Amino acid sequence: MSEAGIVKEKDDPAVVFRTRGLTKVYEMGSVTVHALRGIDLELSSGELVVLLGPSGSGKSTLLNILGGLDTATGGEVSYLGKDLTKATERELTEYRRYHVGFVFQFYNLIPSLTAVENVSVVTEIAVKPMNPADALAVVGLADRLDHFPSQLSGGEQQRVAIARAISKNPSVLLCDEPTGALDSETGIVVLEALERVNRELGTTTVIITHNVDIAGMADRIIHLSNGLISEVTKNTAKRSPQELHW
Amino acid sequence: MKALDHKLWRDLWGMKGQALAICLVIASGVCTYVLLISTMHSLNLTRDSFYSEYGFADVFASLKRAPEGLRQRISEIPGVNQVETRVMANVKLDIRDFPEPVTARLVSVPDSGSPLLNRLFIRRGRQVDPSKDNEVLVSEAFADAHRLIPGDRFGAVINGKWKTLVVAGVALSPEFVLQSRPGALSPDYKRYAILWMARTPFATAYDMKGAFNDVTMTLSPNALTGDVIARLDELLDNYGGLGAYSRKDQMSNRFLSEEFKQLQRSAQIFPTIFIAVAGFLLNVVISRTVSTQRDQIAALKAFGYDNMSIGIHYVKLVFVIVLIGIALGLGAGIWLGRGLGRIYMEFYRFPYLLNVLKPSVVISASLISILSALAGTLYSVRRAALLPPAEAMRPEPPAQYRRIMLEYLGLGRILSQPTRIIFRNIERRPVKTALTVFGIALASAVMISGRFSSDAIDFMVDVQFRLHHREDMTVTFTEPASGKAVHELQSIPGIEYAEPFRSVPAQLRFGHRTYRTSIEGVRPASRLYQLLDLRLKVVDIPPSGILLTDYLGQMLGIKEGDMLTVEVLEGSRPVLQVPVAGLAKQYIGLMGFMDISALNRLMKEGSAISGAYLATDARYQQQIYRKLVETPRVAGVVVRKEEIKNFYATQAEALLFFTFIATILGGIIAFGVVYNSARISLAERSRELASLRVLGYTRGEISYIFLGELALLTLVSILPGFFIGKGICVYVARALESDLFRIPVVIEPKTYALAAAVVIVSACLSGLIVRHRLDHLDLVAVLKTKE
Ligand SMILES: Nc1ncnc2c1ncn2[C@@H]1O[C@H](COP(=O)(O)OP(=O)(O)OP(=O)(O)O)[C@@H](O)[C@H]1O
Ligand SMILES: [Mg+2]
User: Which of A129, A138, B611, B716 is the most buried (most CB within 10 A)?
Assistant: First the structure.
């Protein structure tokens, strides 16, 4: 497979994601849930963005749509100028395969595979991946390569999930509450890994969190509430993860 | 895809119990298929090669006597290729240390030693010497039964004269692969023999020099058999021809073909059941696996795996299970095939058995299994793969429960809470429940249909030998005798009562349909030979008119009151019109029955009889045999008890073999279905059950909830299983019915009981295994995990 499928139509080279009037409606029998009510957003290359917002505000929904895991109900979303709402199933698969690194809220490791195999699942189909063991070393798990998820703590599992996401050297890294289950010390280790990838490889990174303190490491902080962007703040005093604490 | 393959093996290991159960079901299907089909192929090939190597004839005819010159005219019939004339006779034998009556068919071989047609395979010894008048070749089955070897001697009554014969060799013929006395229930190797003697001494003994009474021939490839037979019958009519027939109606060949038909039928039915069950089990197991792995599938998709590679991953899982099953099945099928081949070789005498396993059998068995397994699983795999990843990542919505019917009826109060859970669970998934019940039902159906032939045979024997035939011995005369012969028999010490019968060979005709058989003249209110109506009630023979075997009536399309044309094949060969007085039930053979005096009147022959049924005093058996063997007029004696005993002896091994296999396979299905449903419910409901435990329910109570459901389904499945089993039996019986025999659909209560028992025991066994897991349910672990 090639990297085809994503036409790099660079009207503004800096813009990686652009959404216009993005909506998502869930129909559940008689109940309709408006998860997203019209999101206008631009994310630039190499940017580290933190998404904040109360539970149910639509953060995961937005991230899923950006990552090609879900489709919008209305509006537009484009990646490097390519309209994701019009992409075929196959184009979406290739987009996910070659461009996106995902860290899920619930880790989603494959229980029957060891840590290093969980990473290999991704590197085996990527173009210029890292060595799985190296990726695990980045998150401080060099000595836990052959452990199964059930033999790892929640935080360790989350770190495997991050190793898995960064191992393919993605162009965008989408993380849904990567530190949700972690104490502040391990949380910082994880965030450092993310920050390093962002800084060294210029990976556009979006991090969802409930933790306002984490916003300190972002270039921009986007607040969602009730399916809409309620506030965007530029972080003028960007801090490294070590300087954070909660 | 290396990492995914690791997942494959570990997933497989995680469900090894279920995978093994499915493997076994598939193996059973493949095994029965390979066993039955390859045995059929092997026998078929062996038969064909034996027939062609040893010149099995195409057309056969017996007659009273014709000059050798007629041979030329026969060979001039268009389409006839090679012709060989023979002399044949029925003889009585006296074997040392075997005090029962033995009869044999004596067949001539040319003096040159080797017949043109129906050539002999000499297993031991040598050809007969035409210059000796006492040398014979003995059929192998008979020689084996009596341990006769070349050089051994035994007594025989040849054309009324006592003679000692010497065994020159032991032989096999394509004409007598199955050696069965005409009219007998089964081959009898101890009491019936085929002997071959050189033509010259044979003809001399029977006063048949320059004449023949039997002819066989081969036809050219494009000859029309029917035409040849018609021309031959015309030619032999003046010489007492008994009607020519083709290879397809030749006794030994006929039985062989019926056997193949039976194998073929079974090879269709049983593997189909197994493969269907396997498909169902795979579907259940894989859809369960897929639904527990929804989030894993979603993650894989999120990383860029496409639907195809995810689908292939699960298909591989199915493949591994199916391939192991196929391999096990092939192995078992080939191994059992050897055993079955040996059993058949006892029955059918071939010089050799060519074992074949056609690649096409292996391929079709594999393809059928693979395709049905895929059909069973593709749907769930597809559904999982098509789910958008974000959707799939969420756990499946909680199951929808409803109040059950019983509760709406206001009966809810009488159910305890756990019982209510059982019923709600069953109601929640009607399709799955129905399929599970159906699957378990198939287990008892397999058992029943596997044991069915044994029950049917018991019943047939009972009807044939306890209701129909009630005599101790049957004596047949060489030629029709006067009624006085009965008094002579009765004067033999030990014979308490004798009842004459007349048997007239005839061609029965109605419209354009004909059937060649014999008409039995029996005494009204006979004590020793009873006729049965369609409901197996004893009926008296009507004073006039003819009763026909029910199946013969169907074949001829004739009913009570119609006029039947009877072309007698004996004496002056009159053609008569006889009204049909009714139909009589008979499972073996087809014939007509008349009042003996009515038959005598019709034949214009006074009080002629063909033989007699005897009631004897068991203490005098041996003296009676001896006396009868010495009576020149007596052609043969059949002892009813011995015939039954022999019948069971010849069938026993085969019956045991099939019952054994059916029991094992039925058990496998029951176990496979019950175990799989148990494991899956356990997986689906361990949280619920653990929660109940935490709430204070005892192990016993949660076992009741869980195993109660399975017990209920197992019990519910038993009755449908009986019906399906019976349905299969009806199908098999219908498919196999022929003029030779009709298998009654009789299933003994003990067969039903055994089927139910095997199913229940298998269910209990899997219940116990699952209960063990249930007892060791790790409450903390179960409740901690998300889902
Ligand atoms: N599949 C679905 N069907 C119906 N409603 C849904 C579905 N998925 C999400 N929602 C609803 O959409 C809204 C947004 O959900 P989303 O998961 O994006 O919230 P979130 O901001 O990520 O919340 P949290 O911080 O709790 O993870 C919520 O009201 C949620 O209930
Ligand atoms: Mg969320």
Answer: B611
CB contact under 8 A, A64 and B11: no
Q: d(Cα A138, Cα A147) in Å, to the nearest integer?
A: 17
CA distance B94 to B54: 30
> Mean per-residue pLDDT for B172-191?
85
- Report residue A24's pLDDT band, with 50, 70 and 90 as the boundaries: very high
CB B390 within 8 A of CB B298: yes
Instruction: Report how far residue B243's alpha carbon sits from residue B235's, in angstroms, rounded to the nearest whole number.
Output: 11
Give alpha helix (H) positions in B154-223: 199-206
Considering CB atoms only, which of A64, A70, A93 is closest to B306? Answer: A93
With beta carbons less than 8 A apart as the criterion, state whether B665 and B272 touch.
no
Length of chain A: 246
Q: What is residue A2's predicted lDDT score, i.e. its pLDDT?
A: 40
CB B444 within 8 A of CB B721: yes
Sheet strands side by side (includes A31-44):
A31-44, A15-28, A74-79, A82-83
Gap between the Cα atoms of A19 and A39, Å rounded: 6
- Kindly report the protein residue whose alpha carbon is nearest to atom 12 of ligand 1: A35
CB B298 within 8 A of CB B393: yes
CB B418 within 8 A of CB B705: yes
pLDDT score of A10: 44
Rounded-to-10 torsion of CA B427, B431, B436, B441: 100
Which residues contact ligand 1 via a Cβ below 6 A? A 26, 28, 33, 35, 53, 55-61; B 394
Q: How far apart are the first and last CA of chain B?
A: 27
How many helices and strands in chain A, by DSSP H and E?
A: 6, 10
Spell out the domains of chain A, with CATH numbers in brackets.
Answer: 45-71+97-243 (3.40.50.300)
A26/B contact by beta carbon, under 8 A? no
CA distances to B33, B101, B268 from B454, rounded to whole Å, are 21, 28, 20
Q: Which of B1, B301, B391 lies closest to A124 in CB terms?
A: B1
| DSSP three-state, residue B562 | coil
Q: Are B771 and B707 spatial neighbours (Cβ–Cβ below 8 Å)?
A: yes
Residue B383 has pLDDT above 80, yes or no: no
Q: What pLDDT, on the 0 to 100 scale, is given for residue A4?
A: 41
Helix (H), strand (E) at residue A109: none
pLDDT at A62: 93
Collect all residues with Cβ–Cβ distance below 8 Å to B672 and sequence separation of at least 6. B21, B22, B24, B25, B277, B281
Cα distance from N-terminal residue to C-terminal residue, chain A: 44
B305 touches chain A (CB under 8 A): yes
| pLDDT above 70 (res A13) | no
Q: Over the Cα atoms of chain A, what is R_g? A: 17
Average pLDDT over residues A164-171: 89
> Is residue A13 helix, strand or coil?
coil
Distance CA B292, CA B284 (A): 12
Q: Quick one: what percent of chain A has pLDDT higher than 70? A: 93
β B192-198/B102-109 pair status: parallel
Distance CA B24, CA B21 (A): 5
Cα B205 from Cα B132, distance rounded (Å): 12
Q: How many CB atoms are closer than 10 A to CB A158?
A: 28
Backbone phi, psi, residue A204, to 5°: -65, 125
Query: Which structure tokens are listed for B61?
Result: 């005819």
Predicted local distance difference test score (pLDDT) of residue B87: 96
Pick among B303, B394, B787 to test the A interface (most A CBs inside 10 A): B303
> Which residue, B606, B596, B600, B580, is CA-closest to B521?
B596
pLDDT mean over B260-269:
81
pLDDT tops 70 at residue B394:
no
What is the torsional sign of CA A197, A202, A206, A209? positive
